[in-house]
Amino acid sequence: MSNQAHVIKSDSADIPREMADLAAAVYRLPNEHREAIEPVLARVLDSTRRRRRILCLVQDALSQLRLDMKYLAFDLEATRRERDDYRRKLEEAS
Question: Domain range spanning residue 7?
């Protein structure tokens, strides 16, 4: 078993099941065929992992943005309430 086959088995959570199945099928091929396909498969697996990491980062950033927007909306509403209270008090005082 080559080093790349070991990497795929140990990092199988990083790639979709279909990609792991494809990699397993490639590693079952005879050496002369596998050697031609392994570099391409490795690049595809690397790009798949990279895309998955990027997708996770984007999802985390969007979640944080949603939370920040909720805090900002709450803060804006509280500021408006305070402003209205101060205006009402100012009008009552005059």
Answer: 3-93
Residue 14 — very low, low, confident or very high, per pLDDT cuts 50/70/90? confident
Which pTM was predicted? 0.66
- State the Cα angle at 50 between 46 and 52, rounded to 5°: 115
- Show Cβ contacts of residue 22 under 8 Å, excluding neighbours closer than 6 positions: 41
Do residues 5 and 31 lie in contact, with contact meaning Cβ atoms separated by under 8 Å?
A: no
Look at the chain and report how many structural domains it folds into.
1
Half-sphere CA count of 34, side-chain side, radius 13 A? 14
Helices (H), the chain: 3-10, 17-27, 31-93
Question: Which residue in this structure is represented by tokens 């490639």?
Answer: 26
Q: What pLDDT does residue 90 have?
A: 95
